[in-house]
User: Fold this.
Amino acid sequence: MHIHPSALAACLVGAMSLSACSPEQNWRDIALEGSSLRFQLPCKPDRTTRSVPLGGVPVDLQVAGCESGSAMVAVMSAALPAGVDASAAMAAWQKATLDNARVPQPLADGQQHPWHRSGQLPLAASVRVQALAQRANGQAVHMDAVWGAVAEGERVRLVHAVVYDPQPSPAMANTLFDGIKP
Assistant:
């Protein structure tokens, strides 16, 4: 039996498309209450809001996250009161996240890159970090995370998105991060 090369190519493209649409990844649009921030998650999220100190003041941190396959995926956001230094607050949030994930600091070359998207404020602390981390139980995971900021009237809203997975998940992380819209 002879298979035409174009038919083989079509089958391969179809198979790759089906493998990318696993039941674990059912991307859905998510909005945060009281914000224009929109993003997508690959699974139905659990949500919570809690008061945390950020930038020296208590803020309401909104969290939406879920498990997709072996990955833990989350988007977090907090509106800073007017007058709070957004860059300093974001840098403190990054340090706390990296410390909690037991990521050695300072970061090695290639682990951190600027992360600037349309509609976001061009802050130096807006970065993407890719590093080997640890879950609370000591399990090694790959962490792919971003931090950014958007203006909301007189306030600045910080946003942090992260994927933790035992295996690197660049496609999932890229889809998550590219889907964040102010």
Q: What stands out?
A: Residues 1-23 have pLDDT under 50 and may be disordered. Helices lie at 5-20, 86-100, 170-178. The two ends are 54 Å apart (CA to CA).
